[in-house]
């Protein structure tokens, strides 16, 4: 009965929630079975072992938090709309709060390291594409991609570690929307115009 009620996706999402709460040690089959109100038999119906669950969970995170976001953003026709949408989605409400900082903290595990590396590369490439679409040259687009991604990671870490000190970083915190708009504005800001070469009236 349990194997019919609880799907593979239920297990992978439970594993991701556990990862966000307590890192890799929290991904324990017995604990997740209790959370899902099923027996261990349900687990072995879907997965060979804990490592298989972890890999499936990481692939679910990669798909939902990167591939599906990129697909949705690319459907927008206007370059500036795509850019604003990307950062609004990325910096807005998290599906599982604290998950990404927890994953980054456990890249000593080979499976985590492989997926985090792949996700980071995909995201940086897409960010570079976004800034290229805004008219920035290749080097400037890459630099802005790096800066934007660093801001994204820092924002999530601030949200996780200092919610009382920086409540604006929380999705529903006081002043959250204004703070988020300001951050996105800084990331997308056009460079200042070069100083004028005009030194005064030409000599008679």
Task: Describe the model.
It is elongated and about 70 Å long. It has one domain: Tetracycline Repressor, domain 2 (Orthogonal Bundle). It is built from 10 helices and no strands. With 204 residues, it is mainly alpha-helical.
List the helices and strands and how they pair.
Blueprint (H helix, E strand, L loop, with lengths): L1 H4 L2 H15 L6 H8 L3 H7 L3 H25 L4 H13 L7 H6 L5 H24 L4 H24 L14 H13 L16
Helix pairs in contact: 2-3, 2-5, 5-6, 5-8, 6-8, 6-10, 8-9
State the main characteristics.
Tetracycline Repressor, domain 2; 204 residues; 10 helices; 68% helix; mainly alpha; elongated
End-to-end gap: 96 Å
Gyration radius (Cα, Å) is 22 Å
> What class, by secondary structure content?
mainly alpha
Number of individual domains: 1
Q: Can you summarize this structure?
A:
This protein has 204 residues and is mainly alpha-helical. The chain is built from ten helices and no strands. The chain has helices at 2-5, 8-22, 29-36, 40-46, 50-74, 79-91, 99-104, 110-133, 138-161, 176-188.
